[in-house]
Amino acid sequence: MLAFLLRRLANAVAVMLTVALIAFVIFRFVGDPVEMMLNEQATQAQRDALRERLGLNASPAMQFARFVTNAIQGDFGISYRNQQDVFTLIAERFPATLELVLVATILSLALGIPFGVVTAIRRNSVLAQALQLVSIVGISLPSFALGILLILVFSVQLGWLPGFGRGEVVDLGFWSTGLLTASGRKALVLPSITLALFQITLVMRLVRAEMLETLRTDFIKFARARGLPDRVVHFRHALRNCLMPVITVTGMQIGNLIAFALITETVFQWPGTGLLFIQAVTFVDIPVMAAYLVIVSFIFVALNTVVDMLYAVVDPRLRMQGSGGGGHGG
Amino acid sequence: MKSLKLMLAATAAVMTLSTAAPANTLKWGAARDIDSLDPYAFGSTFTLAFLNHVYEGLVRYDANLKIEPALAESWEIVEPTVWRFKLRKGVKFHNGSDFTADDAMASLKRISHETSPLKGNLPAYKDARKIDDHTVDIMLNSAYPLLLNDLTNVFMFDKEWLVANNSELPTDVAKGVEGYATHHANGTGPFMLESRRPDAKTILVVNPKWWDAPRHNLTRIEFTPIASAPTRVAALLSGDINYTEAAPLQDLQRLQASPEVKTLLSTELRTVFFALNFKDRLTESDVKDKNPLKDRRVRRALYQGLAMDQMQKRAMRGLSRNTGALVAPAIPGYTPDMDARLPFDAEGAKKLLAEAGYPNGFSLSLVCSTDSYVNEEEICQSAAAMWARIGIKANLSSGPRSIQNPKRVKGEFDITTLGWANEPMIDAYSILVQVMHGKTGSAGVFNWGNWGHPRIDELTDKAANELNPEKRIPMMSEALKIAKEEILFLPLHQQPMAWATRTDVTGAVQLSDNKARHWFTRMK
């Protein structure tokens, strides 16, 4: 187990360094922050002086070394655009994104699993066919289009739900939550559905495929032969055996959602990290972009590691292989 | 049934009346968030316009865009390089302390500091001295006519507040340490900061102790950035916001169709034109040995190849104002005869090109961004199509401003879009010194393509030190006319601005600098 952990750790460091390098290379092509920071009245001398003070004139190697050294110490500097500490800036936005992602994930499991089961056990029913059709829409409809559609229907036409923002939030010191107020919960509905639709269809299709597989296995046949009711066969025996890959995929997708919630966040003006990142790109706010990429890659690496470790805990076969030195994930 | 409905409606009306009357909340949905609460943080006109509700300068623009006293009651020019300001007495900051000469001194020192990104907003400033508690002298490097214009955007801080919070100097991004003024505000303006959540909501409440008699009847401003245009439109239609300074042009018809929404349309100060490469070679062309754009006939052909009526109708949806001038009518220096354009004449343009030695035209690069000016991408696409008809093959490079601007600055273009609003000074001197003047000393920062004319430089330098407007403004007009006569640029239009409000917002004052001034706004 220790060797496994150490190997994962070395992997993680390598990934993080690669991300830092790629991020750094990208920054050399995103534009000139100085042109964005000063207004039309600034003279050339003022522009040059600012560029010098920001260290943009140093050699690329020097700049990279400084970037990595600072990042290791957790010092990402302050934002060029709003002069706030970058780490605080991201930490402030993070609860919004995480709440959105968690609600979307819960939605995707709560809806995706039953839908998957239904489409698997009643393969030819009208309901299953309809769900299959909707799931194709869910996979192919871009989330910004869905978001705007939802806003037009539920916010403009019906006036039931707010079309933007987070509503009232409650500050718990280190965490700001919208879950404790009515307006905060209402504000969550549309963005979380927008974000979850793709996940719902993903989970549904996964469960369906796994169920179809499992329903063909011998132990299900035996269970049926024993005369167990269908409900028990389907939900207690078959479904349980399908959940491993669902948990894995969901775990991995949380990272994806955190990183790619930015479209949903832009459409709904959801004050999360994705919105922050989009703005940083527009304003060539290099410190914010750098920190965002590093933090997101850290989340990915951490989730990956945790999922791999869970695998080893849950599946005894992997544990044996792991101590033997080989080991490949399911 | 009918009477019941009526009764319900009546009760609802009474209820809304009784609840809405005391609280007039302007719910402002903006296209972007302000960058910071610190006005000296980032060179952004939008942020300054917003913060002007909280902070004020010594002078300000009135509802006709004329300069009037604000925190200074009066001023005189003691010597050509020394201006004396009498400060208004009895003005209090939101934290209760008095506004005095010390505050003005501290504010001037802060904005003109080496590390202040807004140092350029006060170009002639040398030093200031306190005469007494309510008198300040501002010393300048040379005689300079536009000090008042510049001061409209130099907001006054409370010195004790700055000292107490260790913020006497502007925040230096290079040092990587946050400043107190980034998160807090303490001005003298008509509204006070209640709270701010970046990207979510910034709330201002009315300042009951404002020194001026308020024309507005607002009690509260809730400012919410909504970056996505369709979401903003939806919010306005559903009543979640009741004012936006950025109604998307493509949705205007939809907004106008709603009985609950009013649109305010006009054109702004910003004049958009094409700037040309005047260097020895073109950057991307089949003509390798010389620069055809140095030939006035070629420039004229490009000018007359533009069917501006068509562009105005298609690309700008009929909302822009076509012009032959390089500044808007409200800018001192403009004269009505500048407005006339050379007519669209594709045949004539072809002849001019043939005369200049390019009967089959030539190719060049056209560098545009997607987010600097209104419908900029459409402008460039239609211009490229029109030029193709006279034989000029413009290779369009389009991208976000952050990517395209460095190319412009380095002169890596043959034709590029450039828009100039002459803000914050609202005077043609701005475009003359920053754009048209040759790159010498601090002038010509935006002279990206090496264009210009010796006489323009001469007139601009003279106007810089001329305090008498009777003499100064004709100098600037003459310089602008040379640029027009020589076709140094290809003027296009003043770009449209579109605000939209719900019908309960009655008196929003929209001036051509496109800044919201809610100390004029009234609600039903």
TrEMBL record, chain A:
The keyword Transmembrane helix applies. It is a multi-pass membrane protein. The chain crosses the membrane at residues 12-30, 100-121, 133-156, 188-207, 246-270. Gene3D superfamilies: MetI-like. It is found in: Cell membrane. CDD domains: TM_PBP2 (cd06261). Keywords: Cell membrane, Membrane, Transmembrane, Transmembrane helix, Transport. Pfam families: BPD_transp_1 (PF00528), BPD_transp_1_N (PF19300). PANTHER family: ABC TRANSPORTER PERMEASE PROTEIN, DIPEPTIDE TRANSPORT SYSTEM PERMEASE PROTEIN DPPB-RELATED. This is ABC transporter permease.
UniProtKB/TrEMBL annotation, chain B:
Residues 1-23 form the signal peptide. This is ABC transporter substrate-binding protein. InterPro entries: Peptide/Ni-bd, SBP_5, SBP_5_CS, SBP_5_dom. It is found in: Periplasm. It holds the Pfam family SBP_bac_5. SUPFAM superfamilies: Periplasmic binding protein-like II. It comes from Chelatococcus albus. Its main location: periplasm. Residues 66-438 form the Solute-binding protein family domain. The lineage of its organism: Bacteria, Pseudomonadati, Pseudomonadota, Alphaproteobacteria, Hyphomicrobiales. Belongs to the bacterial solute-binding protein 5 family. Keywords: Signal, Transport. It comes from the Bacteria.
